[in-house]
């Protein structure tokens, strides 16, 4: 009995010592970051930093953190939608240019017309499968699953965003009769998560699970609204 408690006491002492070491490291890191912050406010651009912080606090207090987040999300998604449409148009024009440049040989025209879409489709499938298999599919069923509280591993990462956008451009640029509405629901959710991660101003939005769900629902509405240019339709879809 005595030996068992002695062993447990030794294990407890080791764990407590490890915990104290970790807390000491965290304290030193926080002190270093605090010193760096103080040094920043003592530099040449101290007035600019102070003015930026004051403007940030004023915007949050007047407009609200959620509204600023939604405005930035709408602007980012509009830019992404324009880039996707522009790249798809370039891919389709490249196919027509290639077909018109080979008008002297009918067989080469046929070969170019058939090979070009096959190459784009193969690249789209292979690139997506290698970089992020989570980007496969439309994205709406998976987003419904996430909104119900199920955690899907690596489904809302930046790597998935890159694979989704490039795969969508190549698939639609090949001339396949597909739509970008469903993938844009997933892309908007990816943009919302990445915007929250890369912008410290919105770091608190995804700390609360209920607000996390609300922002993802809003992102789904933004994604659909970007495709149809119908904000009301996006809201009805999210409902």
CATH homologous superfamily identity of the largest domain: Clc chloride channel
In helices, the fraction of residues equals over 70%
- Average pLDDT, rounded to a whole number, is 77
Largest sheet: none
Task: Report Rg.
Answer: 26 Å
Explained architecture:
The protein has 239 residues and is mainly α. The chain has two domains: 2-60; 64-238, Clc chloride channel. The protein is built from nine helices and no strands. The protein has helices at 2-40, 46-62, 65-101, 106-131, 140-147, 158-173, 181-198, 209-228, 231-238. Helix 3 (65-101) packs parallel to helix 6 and helix 8 (209-228) packs across helix 9.
Helix-strand layout with pairing:
Elements: H1 2-40, H2 46-62, H3 65-101, H4 106-131, H5 140-147, H6 158-173, H7 181-198, H8 209-228, H9 231-238
Helix pairs in contact: 3-4, 3-6, 3-7, 3-8, 4-6, 6-7, 7-8, 8-9
Structural descriptors:
disordered N terminus; mainly alpha; 0% strand; elongated; Clc chloride channel; 239 residues
Task: Describe what is shown at a glance.
The protein has 239 residues and is mainly α. The protein has 9 helices and no strands.
């Amino acid at each position: 009995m005595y030996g068992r408690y002695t062993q447990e006491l030794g294990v407890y002492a080791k764990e407590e010592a490890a915990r104290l070491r970790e807390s000491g490291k965290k304290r030193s890191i926080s002190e270093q970051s605090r010193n760096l912050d103080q040094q920043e406010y003592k530099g040449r651009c101290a007035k600019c930093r102070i003015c930026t912080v004051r403007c940030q606090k004023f915007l949050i207090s007047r407009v609200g953190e959620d509204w600023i987040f939604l405005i930035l999300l709408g602007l980012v998604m509009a830019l992404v939608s324009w880039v996707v449409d522009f790249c798809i148009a370039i891919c389709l024009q490249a196919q027509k240019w290639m077909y018109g440049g080979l008008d002297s040989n009918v067989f080469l025209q046929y070969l170019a017309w058939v090979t070009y879409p096959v190459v784009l489709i193969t690249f789209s499938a292979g690139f997506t499968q290698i970089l992020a298999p989570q980007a496969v599919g439309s994205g709406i069923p998976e987003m419904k699953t996430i909104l119900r509280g199920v955690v899907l591993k690596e489904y809302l990462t930046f790597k998935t965003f890159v694979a989704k956008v490039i795969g969508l451009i190549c698939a639609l640029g090949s001339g396949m009769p597909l739509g970008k509405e469903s993938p844009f629901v997933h892309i908007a959710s990816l943009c919302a998560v990445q915007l929250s991660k890369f912008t410290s101003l919105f770091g608190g939005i995804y700390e609360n699970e209920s607000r996390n769900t609300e922002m993802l629902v809003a992102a789904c509405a933004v994604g659909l609204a970007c495709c149809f240019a119908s904000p009301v339709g996006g809201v009805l879809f999210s409902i």
